[in-house]
Amino acid sequence: MATDPDDDYGRTFANVYDDWYSLDFDDGAAAVEVLARYGRDGDALELGVGTGRIAIPLAARGISVHGVDISPDMLRRLRAKPGAELVGTELADMSDCDLGRRFALVYSVFNSLFCVPDQQRQTACFAVAACHLAGPAGRFVVDHQIPDAVNSGSCVRHVHTGPDRLRFSLVHCDPVSQIMERQTVVVENGGITRYRSVIRYVWPSEMDLMATAAGLTLEDRWPGWQGGTVRPDTQRCISVYRPDTQGTP
Ligand SMILES: C[S@@+](CC[C@H](N)C(=O)[O-])C[C@H]1O[C@@H](n2cnc3c(N)ncnc32)[C@H](O)[C@@H]1O
Fold it and tell me: Is 55 in the pocket of ligand 1 (CB under 6 A)?
């Protein structure tokens, strides 16, 4: 598993992940609040749990949280953190796994779905989520960015400037394949380090189709964890899916 080509993300970012992305980053604390409401009647499963940035505080709210990740390096980081004992982890591919149990809440946040490299396997993630839901009351929550570089093709995005560190990203989008390549450049202590990631972004409408194929239907959609209405200039999309009991024969 350590040489799995799908683990590029973990191998590239595990060492810097918690430094770059704290719980405060990208409204993580608000995500925990919302997910805690959906998970309160049972266990929760995170697809692409990473270092437990969301899963550990969610488990600290009294919810039994399990997490699947393809990266041994990310899971090692998770297990080394205080509170990790509250989170069950599984080294597995979220597009092809069966934990043999059901959850009130399955969720995938902070673009984890985009890390799965192709449409077929992203669709399979919805099937995995659906088959882990505990009946009609179960919910699948997906959180992702809507890439703003799509129209421009390429862009440079400033990420962080500190007293001794500068971080920015060069982003290139291919709107046909929906592949986005990002080179993050860190200038620190007079040295330069480059981190490359490749993701496949998914449009909300495409995601709804993936959900339909898995027997799920859209229940709610917001531009942020505080709720609200998704508009054409929305930069983020949080979708809540429920089992489509009407469509079930
Ligand atoms: C952007 S990180 C998000 C981590 C975490 N959800 C958070 O909010 O901090 C994406 C995670 O998805 C994992 N991942 C990528 N492809 C995966 C797959 N096919 N199956 C399971 N996990 C995967 C990566 O290893 C990484 O930990």
Answer: no
User: H helices of the chain, where?
Assistant: 8-13, 17-20, 28-39, 55-60, 72-79, 119-131, 204-213
111 C-beta closer than 6 A to ligand 1: yes
Instruction: Tally Cβ neighbours within 10 Å of residue 222.
Output: 18
* Site of tokens 């703003």: 148
Please write the tens of the pLDDT for every residue from 45-89. 999 999 999 999 999 999 999 999 999 999 999 999 999 999 999
Select from 11, 66, 69, 94 the residue to mutate for testing ligand 1; criterion: most ligand atoms less than 8 Å from CB.
69
Ligand 1 centroid vs 47 CA: distance in angstroms? 7
240 ligand 1 Cβ < 6 A: no
Domains, the chain, ordered by start: 5-146+202-243 (3.40.50.150), 154-199 (2.20.25.570)
